[in-house]
Structure to design on (370 residues):
């Protein structure tokens, strides 16, 4: 299975990040604009969660089944993937909070809750250990990802047992996603798809399992035909747009959209088998590669940009004119490139190297004791 087949999924990460960014950022536009699909942009996080389950299963499941999976190395690699940029944006947020305090202005009502800092440092802020949505709020989903990484062996064990029954796996995962979301709404009074710092670790579970099950379907050749893949991607897109546009206020519509996002991921994973398409273009793949940086910096950048532009234009708290608003949105691309190449990649290599050395030393000590 050549890795090039997953280039379209890398590009899809860019659209997931853009969806989330637009959901938050469009609220700063004047005059205000409401658009059904953008109003559902918080579901871009669930798209990330399903993608994560799919891709990690793609990369690691065969090794797990063949007893070649090294959990300690896996944890090191996953930590290296998310932690450096998380800490960098957390430190930058702390600098912003300090600068704002010196100038006597407020970035955000929940920008700094010091009781939440230990949870943020330990990547546990979505495990119910943070009292508010503090500091760089989008990092709650990285904490949820970390929870999924730590429990990945359980996901892999379940997926491996069902590897020859992908239809059963997808059906069970979809049913679990439906039941858990309905039960959560009945108990908590709001949708699980709106959970962040309080229940984020629970929110990722059904989506991550769904992604792993969808990988089994992909592995079994469910979208081996490019025509089936294109039809599935188009159908999923239509369902998402229609549900977001015409059923936005209806209960449980988010569940339908999340299920459709799963179909989209499965179908996009089957694209470009016969010839490279637009989702395999170098530009979109690169934007997908830097999408983690985009997601992690967009809130701190929004704070800085809004304060600066409002001061220049003397706007007060009102939204920005479209030209300025669009300029701030586009600026995220070069800023993401800088964060990706100057922070994410080099420190990822450093953490991996350091972590692998620690793992090797521990392995040597255990072997020596035996």
């Amino acid at each position: 299975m050549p890795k090039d087949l997953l280039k379209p999924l890398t590009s899809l990460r860019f659209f997931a990040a853009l969806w989330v960014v637009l959901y938050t950022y469009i609220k700063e536009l004047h005059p205000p604009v409401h658009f059904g699909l953008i109003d559902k942009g918080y579901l871009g996080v669930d798209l990330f969660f399903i993608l994560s389950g799919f891709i990690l299963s793609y990369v690691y499941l065969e090794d797990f089944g063949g007893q070649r999976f090294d959990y300690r190395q896996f944890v090191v690699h996953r930590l290296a993937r998310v932690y450096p940029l998380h800490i960098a944006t957390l430190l930058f947020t702390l600098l912003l909070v300090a600068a704002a305090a010196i100038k006597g202005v407020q970035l955000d009502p929940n920008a700094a809750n010091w009781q939440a800092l230990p949870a943020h440092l330990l990547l546990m802020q979505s495990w119910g250990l943070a009292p508010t949505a503090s500091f760089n709020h989008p990092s709650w989903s990285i904490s949820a990802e970390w929870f999924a990484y730590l429990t990945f062996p359980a996901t892999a064990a379940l997926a491996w047992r069902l590897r020859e029954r992908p239809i059963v796996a997808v059906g069970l995962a979809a049913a679990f996603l439906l039941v858990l979301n309905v039960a959560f709404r009945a108990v908590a009074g709001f949708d699980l798809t709106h959970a962040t710092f309080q229940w984020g670790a629970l929110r990722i579970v059904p989506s991550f399992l769904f992604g792993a099950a969808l990988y089994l379907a992909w592995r079994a050749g469910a979208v081996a035909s490019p025509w089936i893949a294109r039809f599935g991607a188009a159908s999923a897109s239509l369902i998402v747009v229609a549900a977001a546009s015409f059923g936005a206020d209806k209960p449980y519509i988010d569940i339908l959209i999340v299920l459709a996002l799963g179909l989209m991921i499965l179908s996009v994973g089957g694209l470009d088998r016969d010839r490279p398409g637009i989702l395999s273009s170098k530009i979109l793949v690169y934007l997908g590669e830097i999408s983690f940086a985009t997601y992690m910096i967009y809130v701190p950048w929004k704070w800085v940009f809004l304060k600066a532009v409002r001061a220049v234009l003397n706007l007060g708290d009102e939204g920005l004119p479209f030209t300025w608003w669009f300029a701030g949105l586009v600026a995220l691309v070069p800023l993401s490139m800088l964060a990706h190449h100057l922070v994410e990649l080099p420190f990822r290599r450093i953490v991996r190297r350091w972590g692998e050395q620690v793992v090797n030393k521990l392995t040597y000590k255990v072997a020596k004791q035996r």
In short: The chain has 15 helices and no strands. Residues 3-369 form one domain. The mean pLDDT is 92. The chain has one domain: 3-369.
